[in-house]
């Protein structure tokens, strides 16, 4: 099962690379066309914006899985093992609640987004904003799995250290604080 999950996340990373590359190519091509030939592709403006939305929301799930989001390590480092576990449990409960609200909001907004179309591509806007389903569900599932492992005592010392920021070098900590 873990192998399938790892393959899925490798696919997401590849998708992020393709979306970012597509966005860069479209914007570069449009700049060259506008300044060099006094023309442009309207579709590239629109699609590059949508790619940016998708990169942001898909990247949020990947970053959450890799513990790459901003944390408050300064506070958590002051606690012992039990205090850190309590903080991990509370943060995962909050993350589940917020992500579930985000999913629900996307669900409530989806009929409107499905009925609206993009001005140039005529793409239904649910294809743009529907990525909220993926992000909300993805973060909830990851946080639920973490919460379950915390409550059953299957959390590793490495995960607790990562949560407290203890597994990072001085350079990595300085980079995160900028």
From TrEMBL:
Its membrane topology: Multi-pass membrane protein
Compartment(s) of residence: Cell inner membrane
Tripartite ATP-independent periplasmic transporters DctQ component domain boundaries: 23-152
Transmembrane segments: 12-35, 47-64, 85-106, 126-144
Keywords, sorted A to Z: Cell inner membrane, Cell membrane, Membrane, Transmembrane, Transmembrane helix, Transport
Main location: membrane
Family per record: Belongs to the TRAP transporter small permease family.
Self-association and partners: The complex comprises the extracytoplasmic solute receptor protein and the two transmembrane proteins.
Function: Part of the tripartite ATP-independent periplasmic (TRAP) transport system.
Name listed for the protein in its UniProt record: TRAP transporter small permease protein
Organism: Pseudorhizobium endolithicum
Highest classification ranks of the organism: Bacteria, Pseudomonadati, Pseudomonadota, Alphaproteobacteria, Hyphomicrobiales
């Amino acid at each position: 099962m873990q192998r399938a999950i790892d393959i899925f996340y490798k696919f997401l990373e590849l998708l992020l690379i393709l979306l970012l590359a597509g966005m860069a190519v479209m914007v570069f091509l449009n700049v060259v066309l506008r300044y060099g030939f006094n023309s442009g592709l309207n579709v590239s403006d629109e699609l590059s914006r949508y790619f940016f939305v998708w990169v942001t929301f898909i990247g949020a799930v990947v970053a959450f899985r890799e513990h790459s989001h901003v944390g408050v390590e300064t506070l958590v480092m002051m606690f012992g093992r039990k205090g850190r576990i309590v903080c991990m449990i509370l943060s995962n409960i909050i993350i589940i609640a917020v992500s579930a609200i985000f999913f629900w909001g996307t669900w409530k907004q989806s009929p409107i987004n499905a009925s609206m179309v993009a001005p140039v591509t005529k793409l239904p806007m649910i294809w743009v904003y529907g990525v909220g389903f993926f992000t909300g569900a993805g973060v909830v599932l990851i946080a639920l799995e973490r919460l379950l492992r915390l409550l059953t005592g299957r959390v590793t010392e490495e995960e607790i250290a990562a949560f407290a920021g203890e597994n990072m070098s001085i350079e990595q900590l300085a980079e995160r604080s900028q």
